Amino acid sequence: MKTRITELLGIEYPIIQGGMAWVAEHNLAAAVSEAGGLGLIGGANAPGEVVREEIRKAKELTKKPFGVNVMLLSPHADDVAKVVVEEGIKVVTTGAGNPGKYMDMWKSAGIKVIPVVASVALAKMMERAGADAVVAEGTESGGHIGEATTMTLVPQVVDAVNIPVIAAGGIADGRGIAAAFMLGAEAVQMGTRFVVAKESIVHENYKQRIIKAKDIDSAVTGRSHGHPVRCLRNQMTREYTKLEKEGKSFEELEYLTLGTLRKAVMDGDVAHGTVMAGQIAGMVDKEQTCKEMIDEMMAQVNVLLKGVN
Ligand code: TUI
Q1: Taking the complete model, does pTM exceed 0.90, yes or no?
Q2: Which one of 69, 80, 114, 144 would you pick to mutate in the ligand 1 pocket, going by the greatest count of ligand atoms within 8 A of its CB?
Q3: Residue-wise pLDDT tens digits, 240-262
Q4: Which domain holds residue 270?
Q5: In this structure, what CATH number is given to the domain that contains residue 154?
Q6: Protein residue closest via CA to atom 21 of ligand 1
Q7: N or C: the chain end with fewer CB closer than 10 Å?
């Protein structure tokens, strides 16, 4: 299946794995790339040297292209931005901000730059700044989110820019991919389904929370402070929401979330940790290899899009 994105990135299938904090490490990224998609290493809040190590380990596992996501709220974003250049990374996605200040450095290194956007305004700004594509990420996604849904955001971004658009948020099977194509997207980015992949190093408790989740099991914390984060409901979200309603400041609430993603992903504490996941978690019901997931989804897409062009 050829689109401007598969051509741009040199990949077989129009499927990109989200650059999820703590989750998107070298094993997962390499497995997705080996299966014909584009794997990403999530820089998240990690120091540059930790990301460099992850990149080097992924290179040992696959000769296929993979990328790095630079999380722009990270205190180490400047260092990670340099490390991707030094390590010869070919594709960079960015999240949670405007990557404008790194554009020149990355473009002159020949890197394909794909900012994740949650609005038409940022998509247009990124196109003007030289982005090669954008990921239009709807509020159905897990983690740090914007307000617009995938259904409304993707066609509006497609209409507003000439560069190819990748849809994200609420996509976890062939139907979602086919729907994204109908909206004008030329690839999809998926996170939640890959969290439960066999190759994912995420704690089994975290995987089981996603596998057992129902349609309305996620909640959004932090809206009142301008950092909305979608995760599965648990003791932590209930406490956070209660304190948020009482008008507690960002600083007062921060202690509840600091380090809590790590607690859930690595230690398996899914009661007090942050179990980031998208709204589609309710549909993700089995652990498979990345290859099984991608092959299954592409078979569905081929049936659904037969005769559509
Ligand atoms: O970045 C993500 N998802 C993430 S980052 C993350 S780590 C984190 N944890 C706790 C709090 C904050 C971050 C977990 N999940 N997705 C891409 C994304 N980018 N979603 C929304 C945005 C976005 C939002 C506003 C991008 C730009 C923006 O405004 C840019 C500007 O400055 O105009």
Answers
A1: yes
A2: 144
A3: 999 999 988 888 887 777 789 99
A4: 214-276
A5: 3.20.20.70
A6: 145
A7: C
